[in-house]
Design a protein that fits this description.
There is one protein chain. Helix content is 54%, strand content 0%. The protein has eleven helices and no strands. Helix 6 runs parallel beside helix 8. The two termini are 33 Å apart.
Length: 235
């Protein structure tokens, strides 16, 4: 409770009867864990049920999200986003890019909904689908990349991997198995911490000079690099 108050002290000024209890009751009727929502996002107490929370749930359902509360539990901040100015432009951009299964992409990384459409989401879509050669149906499997910085992580690493010749030939293949390996390995390379990335890059280049496999799947299988904290990384 003290942590919630520190994050949102304004909640102390709200009416217990007219504001706090109705929000808790609503969450219970929606069959979600109340602490899972209010602890990371106590600002929900400042949102209108009629004009904010319920319209967001209906909007998510309208774009094909069958379990909107699952998505909201993953990223409760979505409740504070404006539908017309923030949410819908992102969805329309994803549709324009040819992404058909938008709900699955959102489940894989709901932080996508918090990205600025023009300055963040669109440039990343352009780079992932263009320069990196990913296909729209592959984005879900590497959705964590959307939380990384394009200028400081995604683009420079990809260009370095291109320049050093360690990209897998499966980047342009139609073979499904090779495509899956390309997407899996590309995600792992992007999510490596900087020390892990430099170590993997050095190992791949050494193998290259030694006549070994020159491909993206030279990356060591380090599970510590395949995580995502939902924040845009800049290192």
């Amino acid at each position: 409770m003290s942590a919630m108050i520190r994050r949102y002290p304004k909640m102390l000024s709200y009416s217990l009867t007219h504001t706090l209890i109705p929000k808790v009751q609503l969450l219970r009727t929606l069959n979600v864990s109340v602490p899972a929502i209010i602890e990371p996002y106590p600002q929900i107490f400042g949102l209108s049920i009629k004009h904010n929370i319920l319209p967001k749930i209906r909007y998510l359902q309208s774009i094909g999200v069958k379990d909107p509360m699952r998505l909201i539990m993953m990223t409760p901040q979505v409740l504070s986003l404006n539908i017309e100015r923030t949410l819908n432009p992102k969805i329309e951009r994803m549709k324009a890019a040819g992404i058909n299964d938008i709900p699955q992409l959102l489940y894989a990384n709901p932080q996508v909904l918090k990205l600025n459409s023009e300055r963040n989401l669109v440039p990343k879509l352009d780079f992932l689908l263009g320069r990196m050669g990913l296909r729209t149906n592959e984005l879900q499997r590497c959705a964590a990349i959307f939380s990384l910085s394009l200028e400081k992580r995604i683009q420079p690493r990809f260009e370095e991997m291109e320049g050093t010749g360690i990209l897998h030939k499966s980047q342009k293949t139609s073979n499904q198995t090779e495509r899956q390996e390309y997407v899996r390995s590309l995600k792992r390379w992007m999510l490596y911490s900087e020390p892990q990335y430099q170590k993997a890059l050095k190992a791949a280049m050494q193998r290259s000079r030694g006549g070994g496999l020159r491909s993206i799947d030279c990356a060591p299988d380090d599970k510590n690099g395949d995580d995502d904290d939902g924040k845009e990384r800049v290192k």
